[in-house]
Amino acid sequence: MKFALLLLLVINLNTATAQELETLPGIGPGLAKKIIEFREKRHGFKHVEELLAIPGISERKWKALRDKVDVK
Amino acid sequence: MKPDSAIEIIRELRHHGHEAYLVGGCVRDMVMKIEPADYDIATSAHPEEIMQIFPRTRSIGVQFGVVLVLYRGHPFEVATFRSDEAYVDGRRPTGVVFTDAKQDVLRRDFTINGLLYDPISETVIDYVDGQSDIRARIVRAIGDPHARFEEDKLRILRAIRFGARLGYTIEQQTWNAVQAMAPKIHQVSGERIREELGRILTEGQAALGMRMMDASGLRKEILPELVWNDHVEHSLRFVKTGSQPDFAMGILLHDTPINDVRKIVERLKFSRAEMNHIIALVENLPQFSAIRQMSVSSLKRFFRTSRFEDHLALARIHLITAGSDLSDYDFAHRKQHEWSDDDIRPVPLITGDDLIQMGFTPGPQFKQILTRVEDEQLEGRLQTRSDAVGFITRNYGAS
């Protein structure tokens, strides 16, 4: 049940903790940390597509991620 | 962030025969000698041309001609010069016309955000007298303020955000329009209002921002239930730049009755997690005045509250602002540091499975027994599993 919920849950890139980011496909502790650093440096994400600028987020990872994140 | 990569993008666009400049907030920051967090670029190139020139791009609003260029590990918004057609719903233009640099600037909100910078010749291009407004520290709408706010009602709140954050005065005509049009803020969605309010509260000078909101009538429109007094205003001075919006909301709402707090956070469409945090902050604050009478187990359970450091911070801000003594806060702070995470969240001595093995039948009594054992453990009266078994046998009888 918990697993199913995680699959449906859309994660807000602007408020997610590192732990929450790590539930995303292809995101481990290293990338989660990079995402949070990126967010802090730029005062938040304006577009989910900005993720693609982070080294380590390939087009392939992006495809698996895009429906599971938002920036509202 | 340094402008080097943005300048390379501009060179590349020029190399292909297009006009291109830095635009908006980054130019304002540069004129103010602040290092921008990011750079936006305006160009005569059309979206499809931008996407052909750069290998990694994403279209993020073709209808507005905005392309995200991913370059050297950074995203850059590259937007075609445009002027907006009528805004029908008060939020979004029905269509755009691609135009020149000057028209592009004239559709923007405030003069301080309407500057272009040519990094090749190192000159600021200023069609709106933005530089003199930066020098004079003034927020002034570009053109007719009523027309600007009519196009996008969120700009009414944005005027206040820039005024407060930068410590600028809102120019008289612009201020009159803010006051006159405050009731129209309701045409903007709860989410967009929440986002803007969050920024007013966390980008610096939150107290000034709320005071401006109050004076303009926006406070009454957006937060009619808020208990707004000197104490609350003063407490906002302690909200640090870069704080989480839900923490700042907790500070803002800490004197407001809890039912009104609930109404506000629901209307502003905070996420479930943020709502819970804000409500918990307001609800828990009175507990601090009884904290020294709490049993060790209650205190440890209190410390388990998620993001407890925010609760502690609110208690401190509240006490300082009220001019009260800080001994309740000091006590909580000291205890929290005295105990390790293991002290606060120890591994349970006993589980439901153990109770079944001891001959108990699963039921409502289970939770009661387990909670009591945990209380005893937190109090330090039970240390081992066999202590716990003995305690249960004594108090509930072995079956």
The level of helicity of chain A is 40-55%
**Which residues of chain A form runs of ≥5 with pLDDT under 50?**
none
Rg estimate of chain B, integer Å: 28 Å
N- to C-terminal distance of chain A: 26 Å
| Rg from alpha-carbon coordinates of chain A | 11 Å
> What oligomeric state do these chains adopt?
heterodimer
Q: What would the average pLDDT of chain B be, to the nearest integer?
A: 94
What is the number of beta strands of chain A? 2
Helix-and-strand structural type of chain B: alpha+beta
Largest interface: A-B, 14 and 19 residues
- H/E element order of chain A: HEHHHE
Q: Helix tally of chain B?
A: 22
Helical segment count of chain A: 4
- Secondary-structure-based class of chain A equals mainly alpha
* CA distance, first residue to last residue of chain B: 70 Å
Any key phrases for this structure?
heterodimer; A: 72 residues; mainly alpha; two-stranded parallel sheet; 43% helix; globular; B: 399 residues; alpha+beta; seven-stranded mixed β-sheet; two-stranded antiparallel sheet; 11 strands; 10% strand
How would you describe what is shown here?
- Chain A is mainly alpha-helical.
- Helix content of chain A is about 45%, strand content about 5%.
- Chain A has helices at about 1-10, 20, 30-40, 60-65; strands at about 10, 70.
- In chain A, strands 1-2 form a two-stranded parallel ribbon.
- The longest helix of chain A has 13 residues, at about 30-40.
- The model of chain B has no long low-confidence stretch (mean pLDDT about 95).
- Classes of the chains: A mainly alpha (about 70), B alpha+beta (about 400).
- At the A-B interface, loops of A face β4 and β5 of B.
